[in-house]
TrEMBL record:
SUPFAM superfamilies for the chain: Glyoxalase/Bleomycin resistance protein/Dihydroxybiphenyl dioxygenase (SSF54593)
MF terms (GO), sorted A to Z: dioxygenase activity
Region forming the signal peptide: none
Protein name from the UniProt record: Ring-cleaving dioxygenase
Keyword Oxidoreductase tagged: yes
Length: 324
């Protein structure tokens, strides 16, 4: 079956124990726009928050499930160990380093990683994040920052960069990326600890379409909680193409969710051999089907198939005020 190449990262979904502090950090410190305040469709008792560029363009979404009783993650292997965020240029990292110092954000020094300027940092729950400069990027275009962001627009975050997976076994994950998902090995480099990282890319390539794999069989398996990543999603052009992927995964006999309706996009979920959850998600319909562009994220949005449960759902949620 002939399929179009995946277009790069679609979104990354992580776990927080505190939706209010999470909202304040990702909007007021990082300057992302909350484009959708909704619920986890598999557990409607908890929030699902989507932060992105001005309208939630695919490839710019960093999302969080709120699990209020989540403990602290025990970091380890078989995990999505770093989520990177793209900024326009090298000089942007100087701006961000100063901003992190002003806001008390834990961060490392600016460094070069595989030819790109980067700045690693952690949020208040230990979520492992990295800013990566797009100054020399050739590949998937970034998004458009929201003009009402508190961050200077010339330095604002424009989307998701490379996602780093830490695995115990390279070969099994590499086979899924290459033989099944159509990624290609692009290059290898050493990190600061002199461990080899293998880079795979897809589609147009560049910062918005890379997966970096760190091999660490010496580590225990990560026990995820707050501060961890739940899954990474890759971009599929449309619903028709996604349905072709459903059939394609069936041919490989890869256990998967089958076609899943998420209203804002359509999806398939499956785990690669090291246990990391992958999602394939369509570029549309997007986030403006139930809210106007001007008012994205201000109110609790529910897909139509949950509207008849609104009163029950709202009663279980702690109020989260996101209308400025």
């Amino acid at each position: 079956m002939q399929l179009k190449p995946l277009k790069g990262q679609h979104h990354v979904s992580a776990i927080t124990a505190d939706a209010k502090r999470n909202y304040e950090f990702y909007t007021k410190v990082l300057g992302l726009r909350l484009v959708k305040k909704t619920v986890n469709q598999d557990d409607t008792s908890v929030y699902h928050l989507f932060y992105a560029d001005e309208r939630g363009n695919p490839g710019t979404d960093l999302t969080f499930f709120e699990i209020p009783r989540a403990g602290q993650t025990r970091y380890g292997t078989n995990s999505i160990s770093t989520t990177s965020l793209r900024v326009p240029k090298d000089a942007s990292l100087l701006y961000w380093k100063q901003r992190f110092e002003e806001h008390g954000v834990e961060h490392d020094e600016i460094s070069q990683v595989t030819g790109r300027a980067t700045l690693s940092f952690r949020d208040f729950e230990g979520q492992r994040l990295m800013l990566v400069s797009d100054e020399h990027n050739v590949g998937v275009a970034g998004g458009q920052p929201w003009e009402k962001s508190p961050v200077e627009l010339e330095h604002a975050i424009v989307g998701l960069g490379p996602v780093t997976l830490t695995v115990a076994n390279l070969e099994s994950t590499a086979k899924i990326l290459t033989f099944v998902l159509g990624f290609k090995e692009n290059r290898r480099y050493k990190n600061e600890e002199q461990e080899e990282i293998v880079v795979f890319d897809t589609g147009e390539g560049g910062t918005g379409a890379e997966v970096h794999i760190e091999v660490r069989p010496d580590l225990p398996v990560e026990r995820p909680d707050r501060g961890s990543v739940h899954h990474v999603a890759f971009r599929v052009e449309n619903e028709e193409e996604l349905k072709r992927w459903v059939e394609y995964l069936k041919e490989f006999r890869i256990p998967n969710s089958g076609f899943v309706e998420r209203y804002y996009f359509r999806s398939i979920y499956f785990r690669e051999p090291n246990g990391i959850l992958f999602e394939l998600a369509t570029d549309g319909p997007g986030f403006e089907g139930d809210e106007s562009f001007e008012h994205l994220g201000e109110n609790l949005a529910l897909p139509p198939y949950f509207e008849n449960q609104r009163a029950e759902i709202e009663a279980k949620l702690k109020p989260l005020h996101t209308k400025e």
